[in-house]
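Hey,

The postdoc asked me to send both predictions to you directly instead of through the lab channel. I've kept everything plain text so nothing gets mangled by the mail client. Protein one:
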Amino acid sequence: MSFSKMLEILQERNEKKIVLIRLGMFYIATGRDAVLLHDKLNLKCTCFTDNVCKVGIPVIAIDKYIEKLDKTGYGYVIYNYNKDICYRGLSYYM
């Protein structure tokens, strides 16, 4: 299963929450989650097409951004992605 397909499934399962997935040295959010994080936390949002956007939060800064996110009142989940194990490689944090 590809990373993008897995992310799509996780976003469907967590429809009312922001989904962040650790991928290497960043936590990634895409689509509506990326745009929301851009608007609420002023994160740089990169859009490849009209509906394909992403933001990245450096792993070393995640605590700072989680604190800010908690203040917004939005729910979120954080996963750890391991491409070698694929779907079973996701660890749920929140």
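Protein two:
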Amino acid sequence: MRTFTLIWFGQLVSAIGSTMTFFALTLWAWDVTGSATALTLVGLFFQLPQIPMTLFAGMIVDRFNRKTLMLLGDAVTAIATLIIGVLYFSQQLQIWHLYLIAMLVAGFSQIQILAYQSSVSLMVPKQQYTRASSMGAIVHYGSNIVGPALAGVLYPVIELSGIVAIDLVTFAIAFVTLLIAPIPQPQVKAKSQLEQSEGWGRRLTFGFRYVWQQPSLRVLLLFTVLFTFAHDLGGSLQSPMVLARTDGNSLAIASVSAAAGVGGVAGAVLLSVWGGPKQRIYGLLGGYIGAGLSKMVFGLGRSTAIWIPAQLCSSLNFPLLGSCRSALWMDKISSDIQGRVFAAKSLVNQGASAIAVLLAGPLADRVLEPAMAPGGVWVHGLSPILGSGPGAGMAILYTICAVAMLLIGIAGFWVPQLRAIDRYPSTP
């Protein structure tokens, strides 16, 4: 795993810088707009271009050098970050700039992610799939510990432009480690005459058709999509909910982000040592259940005394469920078609996530928040449970989504194709 570990280290450093920038931009956007919709729209504009791009990204990843594609993705993201820093330094940065930059980065980011995911199975032995995925979780959650903490301390001193400068240095480190790492390419199997004569339509839909023809993968994707929708519908409101209920307290949201990082890193480290369950589907469904229960407590909470331990417990589950899910897909799909198949499942998930993010902001700002404001129509019935005033309406939707996540995990144990997926033969 030497090559994988080298790339992993570069991505860890870069993720810390990116998290610092994202945290600083969240504070800046809330100060400028005070709107949950404005914050969720950044995520929406990042997701929307990924949907059409993913149709082609799978073919691109399976056809071109994956290392080159990853380097290109890093370069484009670094340029976009530089643009944000220049606009802020010249006092011209506006919220719509973030929407445009998110759209610019989105397509290249999707290709980079697919290229990385499709290369893992070529860099590590099959028995290390779950461990490699858990190391990926350390990148995500470790950056959530260090990034917000550093940004919270440095933002008042060096402002957004200084944090962007740090982010650019971390990009350079990731770029160099990726540049010197030897990344193998899959052996492309010879195509039959029928495959060579296929039109663009069938080539673009190859991944979807492949998943649809495999009952176990089809059910796995369905449960993943349901969980993603519920998670992202509530999760896109977490930061604005905390900010609203704490009167814009940056320390509160930094503490919650740090708790997410601590829980995620702890879960990933435990999983790396353990290696994961033999029945990976049980790890996936158990993670769904644990995350749903923890997020229910988070939604019902009204202070950091509840949010921090709830977030810690929630994040413990995500390395488990994410690593088990990734290992299942890598084990069942041949490396030479992983780009197209992974693109297909990503596209379906992105569609669900985009719809969730699109609904969350307007539901919160126009329906739920007014209903839970003093004198609102739902205050009398729900305020004893969720309180009232700013953030209470968002807490309603967040808690409902958490219950849905819990039920999805429980339901999975009753689906034979899903419960027995580990016993199905792997793709050669």
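Summary for protein two, as requested: Residues 192-197 have pLDDT under 50 and may be disordered.

Thanks,
C.
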